[in-house]
Amino acid sequence: MHRDPHITPEIAAHVLFHIGRGGWPGNTFVQKLLATFDAADAPNRLRLAEGFPGYAAAFELAKSTNDGVAILQARADDDH
Prior knowledge:
Blueprint: H1 9-18, H2 28-39, H3 42-51, H4 53-64, H5 68-77
Helix pairs in contact: 1-4, 1-5, 3-4, 4-5
């Protein structure tokens, strides 16, 4: 199973909520951050990743792999 040390159960849950696949919302800043990841082109996502590596890794995992959502769901469940 994919284990990125930057992706905490809380980050996984926030990303899942953002993409409508469960989880729970983050605070207003996190919600706007994830909307920014959505709107950013590849070079700007890389810039965002420098400051927010966990959110960047979770966002890319959810968007770019077939089992990314399942991996994030399992990670979010690690907190319960």
